[in-house]
Amino acid sequence: MSKFSILIVGAGPAGLIMALFLAKSGIKSRIIDKDPNFHTVRSRGFGIQPRTLELLQTLGLLPDVQAAATPIPTMRAYKLPGGMDPVKTWDLYEKGRVWPDRPHANGACLQQSTLEEIIRAHLARYGVTVERSRELVEIKQDSDGVTATIIYTQTGGKEEVRVEYLVGADGARGPTRKLLGLTFEGETKDTDGMVWGDVEIEGLGSDYWHIWGKPGHFTRTHLRIMARPITPGEKKFGIGITGLNFDPIELADETKTKAFIREQTGRTDLELGQFSWLSYFKPNMRMVNKFAEGRVFIVGDAAHVHSPTGIDSNLAWKLALVLKRHAPPSLLETYTAERLPVVAQMLLATSALYTHTIAKAPKAEKTEPENEKASGWFRWRNTALEMYGINYRYSPIIFTEGVDRAEPTLILEELRARAYEGYEGSGTLCAGDRAPEAPGLVLNSEAGNKSLFGLINPAMHNILIFIPHKKAIATLEGIAAAVVAYPPGTAQTFIFFKDHETLGGRNGFVDRDGHAFAAYLVKDDCRIGIVVVRPDGFIGAVVGGVEGMDRYFRTIFWHTN
Ligand SMILES: Cc1cc2nc3c(=O)[nH]c(=O)nc-3n(C[C@H](O)[C@H](O)[C@H](O)COP(=O)(O)OP(=O)(O)OC[C@H]3O[C@@H](n4cnc5c(N)ncnc54)[C@H](O)[C@@H]3O)c2cc1C
Ligand SMILES: *[C@@H]1O[C@H](CO)[C@@H](O)[C@H](O)[C@H]1NC(C)=O
């Protein structure tokens, strides 16, 4: 066995986040990429969804991300022909619509290459660097480990790497999935194609995300041309050309694309410079039938395209616990069990979005342009993109105590069907849900305040203990005694008191503005509220005492008694 227990194949966002998560949990992995260079010019992904910002926050990346990110530009569509008169101006996410429990609801724009650079810089602090020009070509595995064959693409060298686990983060076209023999089911929109690229444009303002293409205008093709300013005040734009029954395969050519844009938008005044990146895609919506085979796992685009997420940390913490021998290998089976329904629902949601934004376009022509709900335009009011609703309520390793919290009437299949849909407005919070943020937490009687996401540590389970009244204080001793019996470094506790009066002279946080008690639905008259937040930011358990908490952890850790 090499000195590394994990090999990560692919250094895109999924592989890098995996490596960082593991590093923070004390596991140093080896990460390779066949590409000799870091991704630089390709803008590819740029939209960071609210939920992803939360994950980046718990991983300590948010300050760097915020310093480099820009707000999502307001969108503006123009009348055709002419291409100059605005017909509609709107925001992807309603601006300023943030709540104490969802502080990043506006999302952000950041070039994927910049995000990757930020993650690499953080990884370097843990002594992890990406090995480039290393291509995975073969995988063999047995009950003890995995042997991966890697070729050095520049020198022609070859290496066999022996590890306990392999994570394939090698993107939609990577070999891991194929080497495992997993299926990649879904659909490719054969009649449609898209062109994306980055180019400098003279004569176009950077204040809007410009869109041309009145639905139906191009008869049956419903073409749409988009120009998104990459940095406010600068001339560089991310170009997108999409359409229904429109396949611009011949356009992945600079001269033709430039002419096409000027012609079709009617903006012959625009001067387009050199493309720093130009590419043709087919819309793809596919997923694997399972996310693992033996000791090999797949994450990111290797497991599912076209998803708006890209980043997920369901696997990393489980691998860390298993490698440290704190949890049985069977915990790893819950990666597929938890994620598969989410990704299946996500694909349904993204294809609905695709249909809604592109295919349904003709219908929109008949409605008032101001009627956002009915229009086929890009207002993704669908909460799917925000991903707050992703939940694992059907998971075999979560535990909700007390029927008033759970939804006992729903059978497993129904819960799975709602894995992505969310429970917004239903006023429930169960194990399996996203742990909400809560600002205004004051430690003891100190000045200043913290927010929950600033406290929780992605390298461990975070046990939130809510003390609604003085009677509950007596329970604390028993909880502390239970927690010290858990494997070292796997759990930490935070105690939240309803008010200063309850806190007395004790150690803990006062929920100054009541956000934490409200978001976690802790009632004034409950015995005590205990919420176990998993390292990935999902709620593992919602319980009313030490017995429930113990029951949850017995399903996670090896049980000796
Ligand atoms: C035009 C476009 C726009 C997009 N916009 C958005 C957006 O706004 N928001 C969003 O969230 N997502 C967006 N996406 C999707 C996003 O880019 C992907 O989801 C993301 O890149 C997936 O990350 P990944 O790490 O799984 O894979 P990738 O980023 O594809 O990385 C895989 C890596 O594996 C390496 N690799 C492949 N094979 C091997 C091998 N055999 N050995 C070693 N290394 C290998 C590759 O070189 C590559 O570096 C967009 C995608 C495109 C194409
Ligand atoms: C709470 O903390 C935030 C972030 O540090 C700060 O901006 C805010 O002013 C603080 N509020 C109070 C009342 O201390």
UniProtKB/TrEMBL annotation:
Named cofactor requirement(s): FAD
Protein's UniProt keywords contain Flavoprotein: yes
Any GO MF annotation of the entry: FAD binding
Domain FAD-binding: 5-347
Membrane-spanning ranges: none
Keywords for this protein: FAD, Flavoprotein, Oxidoreductase
Protein name from the UniProt record: FAD binding domain-containing protein
Organism, as annotated: Mycena rosella (Pink bonnet)
